[in-house]
Structures are given as structure tokens and as C-alpha cells.
Design goal:
The protein is α/β, with parallel strands linked by helices. The chain is 31% helix and 21% strand. The strands form 4 sheets. The chain has an 8-stranded parallel beta sheet. A 6-stranded mixed beta sheet has the order 2-1-6-20-21-22, with helices on one face. A 5-stranded mixed beta sheet has the order 8-9-10-12-11, with helices on both faces. Strand 17, helix 12 and strand 18 form a beta-alpha-beta unit.
């Protein structure tokens, strides 16, 4: 059986086998030790030498929002050339039905293309013709084709929010280029105006997206909320899956205000009658759990991360009184909070507010709170965050925008943006994630590659070797580390007796393959609480449609991992898999 199960025990990081019963790990050890538990009802899965890891946990993702739109979007994640990206754009335009748009919303960078450039408006128009199209690059740029300009009714006189604009050509007409300099509100508005799916199709789209996350070995995520995504209306699809016991990953979620200036009113309405830790999942006790407010408790405190534009300055006189009131109210009720802060200049001002709250209404050690992003956090700010009992959730945003960041702030600043090693050395809880899907890809392995290699997806070396993590450390922060932010570090994140049986069998040995190949790792078998939620060849016979009906008391034994098959066949009669095995 000769497996490689990452149990992360001191002096013995790897084991041969594991056993699961009633959704929990009941034994981890050698094949001989584990197989003594085998009984008449035990199902044995041979892993044949492959690596098994705890289920990955994205500490900052936007899954409920992404799920609503997944089936409407063309993804350029990992596409190697601009030529191929434009070919896919052309094909998507051909198949897009009347009334819908072609849309590419995040997950790509021009530096991933062999051509090392963005598409031009002329190329987008040629590829899409009279089908309305919107392409968005991070929260920096948007591209509308001429059909999209017409469909939106945009003219030279159409107003834009402060800090954003429509480019006007020499002919006095909008070109289709949307600039966020640095305010992305106009990009938010564009996405919000695109045609939605029907409620039933939103549920299907969400289910597809969560299965896609399972494909990478993800079993948990923290939903950091986000602009243009309101509660409870836009949570209906995930809520429906939770109530039907059909969620294929565990989600903890935060809430986002509707608009600037109404935050306190919004939270009072959204949190009325609700308690921290409230769970909507009818199958799992930690399936879809309300955690608190984030990532913008007060919208005036956001420092937009458009690295193609100068750093924005947040005004403490404007945001501080509201932020202090909001945080005090959350602490009083026991709700967690997390705050978007890209630059240390912003973090310093936010910490001033939090320290005032701490003096009046102590929260350090009482609840989990976090700074999100923290690309340029300083050593002094790290000390202050640690003293307040906070964590830092870091994403691989510079894997997508690192070249833009370095061009503006210099390679020395980029070499510690963010300072992963310094965060760990300061004793601050660190969670890794992606910030998918409007910024980076939702693929967790791209984030792990970035944390280990320090390189962007364009191959540019950015993060200093002093700030990078070892493969074991990066995986630990993507599992145990992320679990801290939802208060579940004693329940999930490790392959250990008594923990939730969430794990993935990998297509390659993450611990030994060349760094560049980390980006290509996927899961062959993803298990959530002992239930198979995703399977690929050669474990196709363990697919969810065949493993869905389980009887209490069944035991499962995993011993190593299996051979990788290059083809992913369709699931017969499975509504989640089209006949050709591809996402529609």
C-alpha cells in the first residue's frame, strides 16, 4: 500500500493509512495498525503510493458570490497565450444565448500569456462581434466591446463614480476601456448590471462551482463577503443547498454592508435575531456558519488595491467614528470581524481605532478577528496586531499583479509583500487563500506555488527567500492556519484522530515535485466528513453519485493514493456532468 499521508506529527510527518467512521478520523498509522479495524462494512480505498493531505481551506474566498455566476463566465485561469484566450472568447461568443453576455471576470493576468500583454479593444471586438462582452482585469481595468457599450447605453456624458472613469476616444465616444484609478466601484456596477441567472440555475451554478473547488482538494472556505453581494438575497442558492444537505464543502461566512454611510443600519437589519455560529446546514454541524462582518465593516476604510494607480489615502476623520461604533457593537454581540487593508498606512489608522475599542470593550482573546491582505504591513503593526489577538489572512494577489506592484513601489518593497515569515515569527495566526474569483483564480495550488516559490504567474521573482514558506509550512497555513479564523482549529485542518475527516488524494506528490509543477496539482479524490464529494480517474468508481447513500456505522480506510489517469470520463446520468465531461 506504501502510502504518503501527511499527518504532520512531530518526528513522523507521514503515515501509511487512515480510517474514518461517522465523519471523523478514528485511526492514523501504518497499514497494519489501521487495517485491524476492517470489518464487514468497511470500504477500502487503495491509494497506491500517492500523497494524501488534509482538505484545503481558503481563508479568503468569495464562494457564494462566485457560485451565482459560475455558469455564465468564461475563465482564463491558466490559459498560456493571449491567442488562445481570444480563441476561447470567440468560441464563447458563438455559444452565448440571446440576452446573455460574454464575461471574463478575474482570475487572469497578462503576464501569464506568452505575449506578456493585455488584449486590445480591437481584438476583443473582432472576437465577439455583436454579442455584448465584458472583460475585467483584477479591480484595475475593464473592457467593454462596442455591443456592450450599446447594451449599457453608455455615452460620453455617462457619469462615473469618483476615482473611476470611462475612457473617451478622439472621436468623443467611449472606447470601452473602464479605468479604476483607484476606485473599483464602476467595475462593481458593471458586474452587477450583467444579466443574472434564474433562481434554479443559480442553485445549479453554485453546485457546479463547489464541485469545481472540490476538484482542487478544497473542503472548506471562509466567505469574506464583498461588494455588490447583499445578504440575504444573494445567499439564497448556497442557503438552499445547505438546507438540503447538498453542500460539498464547509463554509463560514461574513456579511458586507449595502452602501457607504448606512453600515450600522445595515448590520442591525442583517444580524437581527441571529447569533454568532448560526448554522444553516441540515447535514453538518459546521456546514454553513455565520461568523460576523467583513471585509469592509465600514466602506470608507477600504484602501483599494489597484497597483496600476497611486495608493489611496483613507481619511481617519471620516471612517474612524463609524468603525469604532461598528466594532464595539460586534464585540458586544460576540461576532467576529475582518478588515480589508492593503497598505500599512491604512493598517496603522485602523489599529488606532481597534486599540480604542480594546480599552473600552476588550476583545483580544475573546473573538477571532483579522486583517485581510496586508501586503505592506510593517513590523510595528505586526506587534500591535499580535497584542490585539488578531490574525492575518493573506492571498496570492501579487501572483497576478506583482509586476504592477513592483513597477510602482520597487522590487525591495515587493520582496516582503506580504511578509509571510515575519507574520509567523510574530506569533500571529496566518491563513492562506486566493481572494478568488474577481481578483485571482480560485485555484488554491496557485497560491501555494506563490507562497513557496515567491514568483508571480508570469515567472517574475518577487517575494524574498527570507519571506517564503516551506512546502510543509504553506500547506499547514492552508489547512490548520485557515481553520483558526473560524475558530475550528481543534476540529479540522489535520489528519488526526477526532478531527473531521476532510482530506484529498493528490495527482502528484506536492512535497517532492519541482516547484513549477505545484501549479498543476489537482485532487483525485476529495472527501468531506467521510463522504466522497469528488472523484477522478482512477478512482472514478468512488464518484459522489455512487457514494451518496451511506449508512451510519460504515467505515472507510484510505491507504496511500492511486495512479493518475489522463482522461476524465463523464458520470452517466449525473446532472452535474454533461455527456462530454466538460463544464457547460
Amino acid at each position: 500500500m506504501d502510502g504518503k499521508i501527511f499527518a504532520d506529527r512531530e518526528g513522523q510527518p507521514f503515515s501509511q493509512a487512515l480510517a474514518v467512521r461517522d465523519g471523523k478520523f478514528i485511526r492514523v498509522g501504518s497499514n497494519k495498525e489501521v487495517l485491524t479495524l476492517r470489518g464487514d462494512k468497511t470500504r477500502v480505498v487503495s491509494a497506491r503510493g500517492r500523497t494524501v493531505i488534509p482538505g484545503l481551506n481558503d481563508s479568503h474566498l468569495h464562494p457564494t458570490r462566485a457560485g451565482r455566476f459560475y455558469l455564465t463566465e468564461l475563465r482564463w485561469d491558466g490559459v498560456p497565450t493571449l491567442k488562445e484566450a481570444l480563441r476561447r472568447l470567440r468560441e464563447q461568443a458563438r455559444r452565448t444565448p440571446p440576452g446573455q453576455w460574454v464575461r471574463v471576470i478575474g482570475g487572469w493576468t497578462p503576464y501569464q500569456f506568452a505575449e506578456k500583454r493585455m488584449p486590445t479593444l480591437a481584438e476583443i471586438n473582432e472576437a465577439t462581434g455583436d454579442v455584448p462582452t465584458f472583460v475585467m482585469y483584477l479591480y484595475s481595468r475593464g473592457f467593454l466591446n462596442q455591443a456592450g457599450i450599446k447594451a449599457m447605453g453608455i455615452t460620453a456624458g455617462t457619469p462615473a463614480p469618483a476615482g473611476a472613469s470611462y475612457e473617451i476616444g478622439e472621436d468623443g465616444k467611449p472606447t470601452g476601456l473602464i479605468l479604476a484609478d483607484p476606485n473599483p466601484a464602476l467595475l462593481y456596477q458593471m458586474v452587477a448590471k450583467l444579466p443574472a441567472l434564474s433562481p434554479a440555475d443559480e442553485v445549479l451554478s453554485t453546485r457546479y462551482f463547489y464541485r469545481e473547488l472540490n476538484r482542487f482538494g478544497l473542503t472548506s472556505a471562509i466567505d469574506a463577503a464583498g461588494g455588490g453581494h447583499v445578504f440575504p438575497e444573494d445567499y439564497v442558492a448556497t442557503e438552499a443547498l445547505a438546507k438540503e444537505g447538498k453542500l460539498s464543502l464547509r463554509l463560514g461566512y461574513f456579511l458586507f454592508p449595502r452602501s457607504a454611510g448606512t453600515e450600522i443600519k445595515d448590520y442591525r437589519r442583517m444580524l437581527a435575531g441571529r447569533e454568532p455560529g448560526e448554522n444553516s446546514d441540515h447535514l453538518r454541524s459546521n456546514g454553513f456558519v455565520l461568523l460576523g462582518v467583513g471585509e469592509a465593516p465600514v466602506l470608507a476604510a477600504i484602501d483599494f488595491e489597484n497597483f496600476m494607480a497611486p495608493r489611496p489615502e483613507i481619511d481617519e476623520e471620516i471612517f474612524a467614528p463609524a468603525l469604532e461604533q461598528v466594532i464595539t457593537g460586534l464585540v458586544d454581540r460576540g461576532f467576529s470581524f475582518r478588515i480589508h487593508a492593503t497598505y500599512n498606512e491604512s493598517i496603522d489608522k485602523i489599529l488606532d481605532v481597534l486599540e480604542r475599542v480594546q480599552k473600552k470593550t476588550p476583545f483580544a482573546g475573546r473573538l477571532r478577528w483579522a486583517i485581510d491582505h496586508a501586503e505592506t504591513v510593517s513590523p510595528d503593526s505586526l506587534k500591535r496586531i499580535q497584542a490585539l489577538g488578531g490574525g492575518i489572512a493573506v492571498q496570492n494577489r501579487l501572483a497576478f499583479a506583482g509586476e504592477d506592484f513592483a513597477a510602482r513601489y520597487g522590487s525591495e518593497v515587493a520582496s516582503r509583500a506580504p511578509p509571510l515569515r515575519d507574520i509567523l515569527d510574530a506569533g500571529i495566526p496566518l491563513g492562506l487563500g486566493t481572494d478568488g474569483t474577481r481578483v485571482s483564480s480560485y485555484n488554491p495550488w496557485l497560491s501555494l506555488y506563490w507562497a513557496v516559490s515567491g514568483r508571480s504567474l508570469g515567472g517574475t521573482e518577487l517575494l524574498s527567500p527570507k519571506q517564503r514558506l516551506s512546502r510543509t509550512e504553506a500547506l499547514r497555513q492552508y489547512t490548520q492556519g485557515s481553520a483558526w479564523f473560524s475558530g475550528e482549529e481543534t476540529r479540522k485542518g489535520r489528519i488526526a484522530v477526532g478531527q473531521d475527516a476532510d482530506f484529498a488524494v493528490l495527482s502528484a506528490d506536492y512535497f517532492s515535485i519541482p516547484e513549477v509543477q505545484i501549479k498543476d496539482v489537482v485532487s483525485l479524490l476529495t472527501v468531506l466528513g467521510g463522504e466522497v464529494v469528488y472523484a477522478a480517474p482512477p478512482l472514478w468508481h468512488w464518484r459522489p453519485s455512487r457514494c451518496r447513500q451511506r449508512q451510519p456505522g460504515h467505515r472507510y480506510v484510505i491507504s496511500a493514493a492511486m495512479h493518475l489517469h489522463p482522461v476524465r470520463p463523464p458520470i452517466p446520468n449525473d446532472p452535474l456532468t454533461p455527456r462530454d465531461g466538460r463544464k457547460p
